[in-house]
Amino acid sequence: MLLSALLTGLVLGGTYALIAMGLTLQYGVARIMNLAYGDVIIAAAFGAFVLFNLAGLNPLLGLLIIVPAGFVLSYLIYALMLQPLARRSGDRGKLEVDSILATFGLLFVIQGIALVVFGSGFMSYSFLAVPINILGTPLAANRVLAFALAVLLGGGLYLLLTRTRWGTAIRAVAVAPGSAPLVGIDVDRIARFAFALGGALAAAGGVIISMYLTFSATAGVVFTMKALVVVIMGGVGNIPGALAAGLILGVVETLVASFIDPGLTLAATYLIFLAVLVLRPSGLFGRSSS
Q1: Phi first, then psi: what are they for 276, rounded to 5°?
Q2: In terms of DSSP H, where are the helices of the chain?
Q3: Second label for 277, Cα 20 to 30 Å away, from 46, 115, 158, 236?
Q4: For 63-193, where are the E strands, in sequence order?
Q5: Which residues pair with 133 in a beta bridge?
Q6: Within its chain, how far is the Cα of 90 from the centroid?
Q7: How far apart are CA 216 and CA 154, in angstroms?
Q8: Cα separation of 213 and 209, whole Å?
Q9: For residue 288, what is the DSSP state?
Q10: pLDDT tens column, 119-155
Q11: 4: Cβ contacts below 8 Å, ≥ 6 apart
Q12: Cα 3 to Cα 31: distance, rounded to the nearest angstrom
């Protein structure tokens, strides 16, 4: 039973890590605290649901449509709504406040459209809902596939950030946005690209979540908070930190649900969050400012 809980926790944690990587790009690079992030995830989940049920399209193929759509939508949101805020903000603190207010409104726009189109009920579809045996423990094939996709996409993002010129520029803006222009980096362009890439990862996370979890039009706020907890735990802008923190969170939630009480999973999540904020504000894997 312990092994089953650990494996299930790793699967859930991999999904958390993937969706948190997108938010850590948006917040760590573009300096945007995106409160509508979870609603983009839910919109992508509904997209996969529609493609599967109406067009008979496998969610793996749906990724090829939904992920680029998430990139384009996030690019347009940044260019039309958030970039003007970034240009007129005198400092990072003001930009964070302005972005919170702007994306808070965007949250209700996306959620309202989803409620009108899909209603308030929970949705799901059956895809690879068959057991497979791993280390003597039965796990649903869709959960194992979700974990494999999260690892693949997360690994691809890590290689992009560490092995390409674009990745180097993104990391430079995340670490020292004021100094990046001195070496010829267009900060606005990189911020726009990072925000759009974060939206693409959110869309990928939505498709993956739809494979094995139920979801509703109002569930976005939960995923926003989970992603934010992982980002803070791992260290803002720290991709390996987000991966590790996501896995930790998924395992902790599963162990609490399995051995204590399912109703205490959120309490356990935010207890860890508060402990990190108090004891290590820079995150478990972030650099201390002292």
Answers
A1: -65, -40
A2: 2-28, 37-54, 59-77, 83-88, 92-118, 141-163, 165-175, 187-212, 220-234, 239-259, 265-279
A3: 158
A4: 131-134, 137-140
A5: 138
A6: 28
A7: 25
A8: 6
A9: P
A10: 888 988 888 878 888 777 777 888 888 888 888 888 8
A11: 137, 138, 139, 258
A12: 39
**Cβ within 8 Å of residue 192, ≥6 positions away:** 30, 75, 78, 79, 83
Beta carbons of 256 and 8 less than 8 angstroms apart: no
Report the length, in residues, of the chain.
290
Q: Given this model, what pLDDT does residue 287 score? A: 57
Please provide the DSSP assignment of 181-210 as one string. Answer: GGGT--HHHHHHHHHHHHHHHHHHHHHHHH
CA pair distance 248, 33, nearest whole angstrom: 23
Name the burial class of residue 217, with classes exposed (0-12), middle (13-18) and buried (19+) by CB atoms within 10 angstroms of its CB. Answer: buried
Residue carrying structure tokens 């049920």 = 53
Neighbours of 38 (CB within 10 A): 27
Tokens of 244: 């590790």
Task: With a cut of 50, list the residues of the chain below it in pLDDT.
Answer: 289-290
- Amino acid at site 284: L
Q: Which tokens hold the place of 56?
A: 């008979």
Alpha-carbon gap, residue 140 to 12, rounded angstroms: 12
The predicted pLDDT at position 289 comes to 46
Q: Please state, in angstroms and rounded to a whole number, the distance separating the CA atoms of residues 285 and 238.
A: 7
For 154, other C-beta atoms within 10 Å of its C-beta total 22
Cα gap 5→285, rounded to integer Å: 25
Tokens of 223: 């995923």
- Cα–Cα distance measured from residue 108 to residue 110, given in angstroms and rounded to the nearest whole number: 6
